[in-house]
Structure formats: structure tokens, C-alpha cells
Amino acid sequence: MSTRLAKGGRLIDRMAPVEFTFNGKRLRGYQGDTLASALLANDQMLVGRSFKYHRPRGIVASGPEEPNALVNLGSGARLEPNQRTTTTEVFDGLEATSQNHWPSLKFDVGVVNNYAARFLPAGFYYKTFIHPRPFWKHVFEPIIRRSAGLGKAPTTGDADHYEQAYAFCDVLVIGGGVAGLLAARAAADAGSRVILLEQSATLGGRTVVDETMVQGKPVDAWLSAIEADLAARDTVTIRTRTCGFGVYDHGYVLADERVADHTPGDGRPKHRLWRIRAGRIITATGAIERPLSFAGNDIPGVMLAGAVRDYVVNHAVSPGDRTVVVTNNDSAYQTALALKAAGLEVPVILDARDSATGALPDAARAAGIRVLTGRAIAKVKGGKRVTGISVCAQAGEGAVLEEVPCEAVAMSGGWSPVVHLWSHCGGKLLWDEAISAFVPDPARPPLNHDGSAMVTVVGAAAGCLSLGNILAGFGKASGKGAIGLPDTCQTPDGSVSVPPVWVMPQGAPIALRSKMWLDFQNDVKVSDVQLAAREGYQSVEHTKRYTTLGMATDQGKLSNINGLAVLAEALGQDIPQVGTTTFRPPYTPVTIGALAGEARGEIFQPLRRTPMHEAHEKSGAYFEPVGLWRRPYCFPRAGETHEQAVHREVLNTRENLGLLDASTLGKIIVKGPDAGKFLDMLYTGVMSTLPVGKCRYGLMCNEQGFLSDDGVVARIDEDTWLCHTTSGGADRIHGWMEDWLQCEWWDWQVYTANVTEQYAQVAVVGPNARKLLQALGGMDVSREALPFMQWADGTLGGFPVRVYRISFSGELSYEIAVPASHGAAFWAACTEAGKALGAMPYGTEALHVMRAEKGFIMIGDETDGTVIPQDLGLDWAISKKKTDYLGKRGQERTFLADPDRWKLVGFETLDGSVVPDGAYVIADGTNANGQRNVQGRVTSTYYSPTLKRGIAMGLLHQGPTRMGDVVEFNTVAGGTVKARVRDMVFYDRDGEKQNV
Amino acid sequence: MSDPGIQPRSALGGMTFAGFASVRETGPVGMITMRAKNLKSLGKAVKAAVGTRVPAQRRIEVAGDKACAWMSPDEYLLLMPYADVSGALGAISKALAGEHHLAADVSDARAVFRIEGDSADRVLCKLCPADLDRLAPGEVRRTRAAQVAVAFWRQDGGYTLVSFRSVAGYVMGLLSHSARIGSDPG
């Protein structure tokens, strides 16, 4: 059983015990423990189940490469699935539950898959569930989804908050081991502004566990000294618990800081996502130990040798009284020595190599440990935990030579440099025969904008696996301002060489190979990859997807190299020929909260509010989004449906007085000697001839001729115009104007200014509109002083205003612009003065209904980017005299000039009902796809409270020539609605009401 | 003339937030957007309007409660007390008579915030992709805060930040979130 040792543990504080629970069981640990070390200290070797076969799974690693020991962490609003116990710092009150088991961790029904494993080979899903087709959706998928899957998705909102932050530096160092610390110091010495990131809570990397002396000093003293040196410099920032997880173009790096994972609820942000722009990136990300592929290598108690060492040295955790070490390289001997030093037994070291002669093997032998070379593990015994191993010859086929009882197995298949960050932006790799690993090829780095290397790799990540080699390269700056970084590790010393051992024993039969796990989380075995190769898979990318090798949440940190080596062997190719799968960010999973940052709740997205927004809220307005604006859709009263509110608002406006918040309307000042010429190009009509003081409706098209925006233009003075745009179009049209002025007509003397938000705008609409303005008092708004389609400056009720006599409803109407800082007060004044005149606010839906009753088009309803003004009967707004305007040439193209197009008409249903939104006018016959032919479609359709019937506008094939025809619209429910074609103006055709 | 009894109200009415740095909306500030380029009387106009020189690229010139900020090669932002805007517009119009320019009152189209305290830059560094360590004295930075456009500069031991009025509530929300006690990234 695994347990806590009586002495030692560099990271734990025995004076600070903590209590936590695992599957409800109360357990104790110490501050400084990871959840994994604390679980092992409590003999919790079984921590989860595998994805496919629900095999028992224990802790394998001690870092972010851990494939097995994932848990649901926390509960309720702080539940997080798939948290790696090896990187989770334990804290008092931590709650963890195991994943992927049913009904319980100890007894799992899904383990039946284990016995059926021979029926679940590589590509099983593809092969089995493809036929019969309907079975996938109704039978297979529900069952698989239930038995598969990892953690539970939280069902409530996240109680924590997250944030992002930007940082800038000359040199970003990722990884706080010896190589990273030395690189940071070298960069700081060269005068650079430096940021150093370390994913764990402490600096020092593997060296603090594996070495005793660094540069002639005890390792801990050396570490304190360099930490103090760096901390004392203004130019260096060190961030621990911060994982640099992605490298992107132009020196952009994303890093996830786990600010408060270990102190939940203390008010700090849980995570902070750093968005760093670095002049140069140095990765010192170390190396990850590889498992060995022997039968039963997934049984709880089989761990990476380095991880065993970490747990013993850092956390004083024993994996068991007797640990067998199995290896193909010298590093695992350190584990044997560490175990021995802790007073534990190492019954045997099985070294797959024919001889082991280095300093470490000698030290092991000197310590009295039995070392067997040329030997391998034939099989691990045990179910939910290791009980022993059987020994065989590595060169053979697995004949058992000896049985060794033990509680744990420490394995080392060599080390894979962490090249992920180097490769994210295209850094290339070399296969290093000496250490059987891919290493960065310094001749082919990811490039910066100027062609220089964007990333430099140092330390073990560069393939430099011995401390001596790492240290040797530093401190030799090549010139002033240059950073003294080592060249790559070209000459690893013999102590770190790793011969290839991909299957153990090398001649293992299928019975053994089908129990050799490559990918522990996704249950991919040696036999699966070999099967894929036999079935014709040659590309490593295809094999990955077919077998799911490396596709689990650990992204194959342990399995990829072993898997592709097995594939290469099966294909009879060299490993570099087979190559790796693509390295993509993030290096480790990043919680969605960190990616969302501050963008949730109230500040999920910018919400644009008019100056009267608060008043509308108080009036109980029901809002709808218009771009990022929120506009009142209607103002329902107690007991009213939205539909009833809209009808009331329409009728009241037509009979008495309506008030509309029109502040969102775009307002763009266009000024200059060439402004008239410019507007004549922008609009289809003529704006240059508009007299000062008057207004004119205009249409804007894009170069293709399609209608893009509309609005009323007012001539302010000799060289100034004010262009109103649609609410959603203000920024777009302003950008459109600047585009033409800056890029095409740069020599025209025109300036524009978007003053949309400078003014609150209130539409005062209805027969009592003038009375309201007169009640407010001030300027003369009589028919004579301010006729239809004119504007005037003045004051109303003491407010400075500009009044436009324009109408989008067909009623007597004034649109009053007032500086936004007075908007709320002016709205209140209108509401107050309007009480006696029957004033009611109305929303966007009443506005839509009233404009439809008048046959006015709406950008986005009658237009959709394929409609030209001529389709809408707006020929009157297009100048025939102008030589050019944007869109003129486009509209002359044969297809658009064709009289055979769908054109806008009005529709009136025979039974008075409302045509459904989006309905088509059907035609005879069907098309090639068997669909009903169509000859038109509805663009606006409403119940008109004024006319007490359904009204609609729509595009109809040759519409204007078909007045009086009866056509049929389809409906969602099936069947059709008959409607008579008519003109678009349903209400006050002569315009008498707006012109009083 | 408008009624002197009617007072302008800024977007948030001077809302404040106290976190590891303090945030406040300043209330109404007079602002004029001025577009002009290569005009012989530009210096005279700016001087007459706000009493400063024409700022160099990416700089702001401050004179008491007035200032002129460079916005783009042909755009300046003039700042002044709210009540001084119409006088300043008149002065610009007079100085630049006959020269092609555009000057418009945008006081009400904007919201102005102050972020103050020793850690003020750590509020902005969470929202704006701007290298604050490299922000020169008198430099104005046009950038974004999360999802909206802003401009800011360092002034009187803090930052003055300008956004559009309609998103003032969003910007206040951002600044408050960023300034939360306990979230100073150090």
C-alpha cells in the first residue's frame, strides 16, 4: 500500500495539515501536497476508470502529463470536471469525486467492456455502428454516451470570476527550471524586460529532485540565490502557477494563471488569462518521461519512475514497500536510489539494455540493489492494484523467468522533450537517435515577422537531458546586448542515452500486446495501433483519429511517441519518416472561464443604451436588440400581451400622440467644399441641390447596386449636411464614407464626423404632436414656420433643440434632437406635457407596423443584399440626370435591369388574416429538387390595428403589373393563404395626415 | 439660448467604484472633435479654443482644465469645461474661416472616466492591449477596452479614459470588474 513516510518531503508542511474528501471519504494531507500526493499518502491508488473499457486507473505521473487521475473537483457552483490531481494543490475542505464509473469506483458495470475488449478493437465505432444507419442515433449513441464520457458537466453557473490581462516584454521565458532561470537571468543581464512563467507553484523543475549540487552549491541554496537575484530586478517578472500554453504568430503567447484554484472563495479571480506580446520567446519546458509498453502497464501502482521520485522526495510519499524499477535508461536508477534512501525496498531493477555501466547503475549496485540487464516485465499482476510482476528476457517472447512480488512498478522508457510550444507556430523537429526522441531543429525555428527565430529552446526541452550539459551552455553572450544562451545540446553525454525499447519484451505475442497500454485514458493498446497498420493506415494523423491515440484530455503527452514508434515498426519505416501529429495549443486544457475572462453577465458584451434607457426600464419597456443597442419593442401595461400593447400604441399614435425614442438613428455630419459632390456619389438621389433648412430622403447602394441604407438628409449650411442612417447602419455607413474619402477620393475636400451619440432624438408623432411642442413652449413649429421636410434650430421647454419635420408613420410628426446630456430630462418633459394630450410612448414594433401601413420600406426587411431600389418601386429616389453614383453601373447589369424581376407590391389577404413571416408566393409545378416553385415572398407582414386586418408587402414576379391578381402564400402549418395584389400604401395614400 | 436651470447629465451621473484602484465617471466634459490638416491657422485655432499648442503625433497638450489630443493625422480632440464649448467652437470658426475643416461638439457623445491610485495601470492592463510601461509622458493612446473603443492618457497621477456614451455602463462594468479588491495582478 502507498503511504506517508515519517520523514522528508521538501514541499509539504507537516505543521499545516489539511482535510479533504475523495468520493465522500475524509482524508488528510499537508499543505504543499498535490491532490495526487495526498491521495497516495492515504493509499488511494485506484482513482478512476478508463474511457472505453472502464479499467481501474491509478496515478501514473506527477505533472500535467497525467492521463488517469482526473477528478470532479468541488461541487455545486464550484464543480469542475476533469481536474488533474497531479497539478491540483490540496487545500482544506477540498472535495473530489472520481469520474467515469458507474455505479461506483470499486465496482463498475462498464468493466464488462474489459472482458469484451476483443470485440472493441481499433476503429470499433466506425466499423460496428455504421449500419444499420438509424441505429446510431437511437440505439448505439445513447448507450455509448452513457458509458463513455469523463467528468460531469456542472449544472449551475460558475460562482467564480475570471479575468484576462495583457503583458509586454522583450523576452518571455516559459518554464522555471534551471534552464529557464538561467535564461531569464541571461536575458535580464542583456538589458531585456523579462517575464518568466512557471506552471507549478515552485521553481526549480526536476533539478531540485534529481540533483544535490548545482554550480558547486547545494541545489536549494543555488535556487534561493537565483530566485533572489531575479526578484531584486525591476526588469524581471516571475509568475508561478502560470502555464504558457500557446505560442502564436508575432511573439504572441497565451498563459493561464491559476490565481485562486487553491484558495477558492477568497475573492480573487480563479484564473487570469495572460495575453503576452514578447519580442522573443525562450521555452524551457523540460521533458516528459515515457512509459514502457509491457502487459499490464495500466494497473494502479505502475507509475513513471520520475513521478515515484517526485512523490518520495517532494511529498514523502511511498508508493509501496516494494517497488520494482523497469527501465531502458540510467535516470530510473535515481528512483531506485531515492526509494532506498527513504528506507524502502527495491527488489530488482530490470534494465532492458544488455549492459548498464554508468555512474548511476554503479551507485545502485553499490547500494545493494539487484540489477538485471537484458530483462523485461512479462506481465504485471493485480487488478485494482499491483501485486507483483513476472520477469522475462527483453529479447524473448515473454517466457517467465521469475516472479517478483511488489506493490509498485516504476517505469522509464526515456524522456520526450516538451517541444509543443516550439512547434505551435511551425518549429520543426529532428529525431535524436542518442535519446530516441524528437528534439527542436534549431535550423528550422518558427519565424518572427523579420525572419528571425521567434522561439529559442533551452534545457531538457532542447534535448539536453543532463544538468551538466544544460549549465555548460549558459553565460557566453556573443556580443553587447546579446543574450548568453546555449547552442542546442549537440553532444549529450552517455549517461542520458536512451536506446529504443518500444515493446517489452520485443517479441511479445498478441496476448501480451493486447494488454500493453499506449494511451491510458482512451484505452489504446499496442495491438490497436498494429491492427490499424495492418488495415492500411499509414499516416500518423489518420491512425490517431482511427484509434483515438492521443485524443484524450492529456493530448497524448505520454502516448504519442510510443504510439508512433509502434506504428513505424508495424509499417517497417523509420520513426522520423512517420513523423508526429500536429502540436496545437493549448498545451494543457484551459478552463472556459479563463477564455471568457470578464465577458459574462452584465459585461458579456457591450450593451448600448440611449440617454432615455433608464426611463424606459422604469416604464416597464420590453426591449429588443438592434445591433448592440437595446430598444423598447413595446411598453406593455399590466395585463397586456406584447401584441395588445403594440396595437394600443399604434392606435394611440394615430389618434392622439405617440413618443418614440429615436436616439439610435445614425447621424453623420458631412462637411466641406466637395461635400455636395460626395453625397451625390453616395446617394442615388441629388443632395447637392438640397436648399439649406430642408430635408430629403435618400438611398445608398453598394457598388453592385444593391440597396444598403436609407435615411433623411438635412442641409445645415452652405457646406454642411447631416445624414441620418438606420440605427444599425451608423458605424458601417460612417466607415463606408471614410473608406471612399481616404482610399478613392482622397483629393476631395470633405470631412465627416459621426455624431450619432451626441444627440438624443425624440419622435413626437400624431395629431396632437404640434400641440405638445406648443405646450413645451419656445420656437415656432406651425405649419407655416416649419413645413413638412424642413428643419429648424431653437428651444422647446428651455432645451436647445433641432426639430426635423419628418414622418415615418404617416402622421404629423416632429423628430427633435437634443444634446444627449439633456435627453432624459427632455423625454420626461415631453411625457409630462403630453399627459393632457393622450401621449404614450411607443416601441419599435408599433413603428414597424405604422411604416408598413404607409408602405415605407425598412432596410433589412424589404432588403437583404440582393435587392436594388428599382425592385422596391423607389425609382423616384434615383436621379436620372446624374452621370454617376455608387451602384449606378451595377444596376445597369442585364440581370438587375431585367423587368422580369421580383418587385415590391402590397398584399391584402382575402380572409383578413396575417400572412406568416417568411412565406413564399407559390407558383405552379415543382423544381428539380421536387420543391414547389415560387414566384415571390413576403418581406413585411403585420396585423394592422388601424385597418383591423392583415397587411403585407412582398416581392412578386413582375409584381406592379399584376394589381388585383389573387396569389397564394404557403404557411408553416401547411395549406395556403390567398391574397390580392395591391399597391403598398394601405393608409392615407394622399399623405394628408402628415401634412397638416 | 437654453434655460440656465437645465443641467446636463452625463451618462452615469458621476458613478464611482472603489477597488484596489478607484474608478469614477467624471460627469460632463466639454469636447470638440476637430478635423483639419495642414492649415496655416490650425495653431491659432487650437490656441484660441483651448490655449495649447497643436499636439504632436500620439500626444496630448494640457493647459489647466483644457487640452488638445492628437487622434489621427487629420483629427484632434479638444477638451474643456462643458460650458466653454460654444465659445470654443466660435473661436475655431473664426480662426479657420475660409479654411477647410470640421469642428463639432461631441461633449454629449462621450463618457469620461478617471482611474486613480498606485495600481491604476493594473486596472487598464486587464482591458487594453497597450504597453503601459512604455506609455510616454503626454502620450495619448487610442485602443480598446475589452470590446469597445477607448482613448486614455496619464494625468495627475491617474488615467483619464474616454469612451462612447452609449457604452458608458459597459465600460464602468469593465473597470469595476478589473479593479475588484483582490484582483491586483501585481
Q: What would you note in describing this structure?
A:
The complex is a heterodimer of chains A (996) and B (186). Chain A has 996 residues and is an alpha+beta fold. Chain A is 23% helix and 28% strand. Chain A has 27 helices and 51 strands. In chain A, helix 9 (331-341) runs parallel beside helix 10, helix 20 packs across helix 25 and helix 23 packs across helix 24 (823-834). The model of chain A has no long low-confidence stretch (mean pLDDT 93). Chain B has 186 residues and is α+β, with helices and mostly antiparallel strands. In chain B, helix 1 (42-50) runs antiparallel to helix 2 (85-95). The longest helix of chain B has 11 residues, at 85-95. The model of chain B has no long low-confidence stretch (mean pLDDT 95).
Topology:
The complex is a heterodimer of chains A (996) and B (186).
Chain A: E1 3-4, E2 13-22, E3 25-31, H1 35-41, E4 48-49, E5 56-57, E6 70-73, E7 80-84, E8 95-98, H2 112-115, H3 124-128, H4 133-147, E9 163-174, H5 178-189, E10 194-197, H6 207-210, E11 213-214, E12 217-218, H7 219-231, E13 236-239, E14 242-248, E15 252-257, E16 272-283, E17 287-289, E18 302-304, H8 305-315, E19 317-318, E20 323-327, H9 331-341, E21 349-351, H10 359-366, E22 371-373, E23 375-382, E24 386-393, E25 402-405, E26 408-412, E27 415-417, H11 420-424, E28 429-432, E29 437-440, E30 455-457, H12 467-473, H13 510-513, E31 517-519, E32 524-525, H14 526-534, H15 540-547, H16 560-571, H17 575-578, H18 592-596, H19 613-618, E33 622-626, E34 629-634, H20 642-655, E35 657-661, E36 666-671, H21 675-682, E37 695-701, E38 707-717, E39 720-725, H22 730-744, E40 751-754, E41 759-765, H23 769-776, E42 791-796, E43 799-804, E44 813-819, H24 823-834, E45 839-841, H25 844-853, H26 888-891, H27 894-897, E46 902-909, E47 920-926, E48 932-944, E49 949-957, E50 966-970, E51 976-982
Parallel strand pairs in A: 2-8, 9-10, 9-16, 10-13, 16-30, 18-26, 20-21, 20-26, 21-22, 35-45
Antiparallel strand pairs in A: 1-19, 2-3, 4-5, 6-7, 6-8, 11-12, 14-15, 15-16, 17-27, 23-24, 24-25, 28-29, 31-32, 33-34, 35-41, 36-39, 36-40, 37-38, 38-39, 41-44, 42-43, 43-44, 46-49, 46-51, 47-48, 48-49, 50-51
Helix pairs in contact in A: 5-7, 8-9, 9-10, 14-16, 20-25, 23-24
Chain B: E1 16-18, E2 22-25, E3 30-35, H1 42-50, E4 60-63, E5 66-72, E6 75-80, H2 85-95, E7 102-105, E8 110-116, H3 120-124, E9 140-145, E10 148-155, E11 158-164, H4 168-178
Antiparallel strand pairs in B: 1-2, 2-8, 3-6, 3-7, 4-5, 5-6, 8-11, 9-10, 10-11
